[in-house]
Amino acid sequence: MGSLDTERATIGWAAKDPSGILSPYTYTLRNTGAEDVYIKVLYCGICHTDIHQIKNDLGMSNYPMVPGHEVVGEVKEVGSEVSNFKVGDKVGVGVLVGCCRNCRPCEADVEQYCNKKIWSYNDVYTDGKPTQGGFAESMVVDQKFVVKIPDGMALEQAAPLLCAGVTVFSPLSHFGLKQSGLRGGILGLGGVGHMGVLIAKAMGHHVTVISSSDKKRVEAMEHLGADQYLVSSDATRMQEAADSLDYIIDTVPANHPLEPYLSLLKLDGKLILTGVINTPMQFLTPMVMLGRKAITGSFIGSMKETKEMLEFCREKGVTSMIEVIKMDYVNKAFERLEKNDVRYRFVVDVAGSKLDP
């Protein structure tokens, strides 16, 4: 792994306490090991999960913390046993940077469900050092958790695909919901929700956006290409839409009732939870019994699914809708994200930012 005097110093923007305010922070990376890829970070997306982490909403935060898990960069060095990447490759890193490799999920290539998975940041790596994320000049990452960005894909638009994109692609793939002609619902039109609309439409689905207000109707229908728009408080329209959807991807990262959305599902329909919510949710059992409906969850996606998703997006021309910012705007961006004031994902131009004080 290299000793401290040979490890590279890098600079990132870190939260130092639960205020969640980011500021410059210098730390060391491990030396590039045999299976490692040393990456210069170019862009990094901002995810709602970053807010939970920097503000210790889940009670598990360790500081100083450099967030960021939608990382796009350029390979600058590879270890002696790295065969899939070469210097100059444009690559991505998502939510995970490690797993045990020998449990049932790992052996089934769904390492995101490994009980010993290692997060891109706010975790401890196998060498005992804290992991730090993509709001930084550089990273050292095991090659298993690095993916190539397809040629021709805009790098800044690829960043949100590495979390938001695969978060919707994975359940559609796993639950057999990729065939054209299905009727799907996307609940919540934030970073994950907008990717849900774009990917489901690219699969040939009839897509209904479900939101708490009417204010995103034009964006959903005209900008993203949704087929229908439902306001959840409009009881008449919700009743008219009952039993009409094969699935709903629920992207809302805050507590909300489930019954109104369960009623929209057809027989054997699935409500797929993807938002991180740290309070208990409730539903009445007849809502699922009287239609053999399923409430299930899905967590990001595997490295295999990430590669499939990137290739699918390249083939179908799917790109995220983003607002590119510099690092000195990142605290304001987090404030705006908490107010849902972004269309639809912030992406930090890390390489184009001045990171040091």
Automatic annotation (TrEMBL):
**Record keywords:** Lignin biosynthesis, Metal-binding, NADP, Oxidoreductase, Zinc
Name the EC number(s): 1.1.1.195
Membrane is among the record's keywords: no
Top-rank EC class of the record's enzyme: oxidoreductase
Which coenzyme or cofactor does it need?
Answer: Zn(2+)
Tell me one GO biological process term: lignin biosynthetic process
What is catalysed by this protein?
(E)-cinnamyl alcohol + NADP(+) = (E)-cinnamaldehyde + NADPH + H(+)
Q: Which residues form the Enoyl reductase (ER) domain?
A: 20-348
State the family it belongs to: Belongs to the zinc-containing alcohol dehydrogenase family.
Q: What is this protein called?
A: cinnamyl-alcohol dehydrogenase
Source organism: Citrus x changshan-huyou
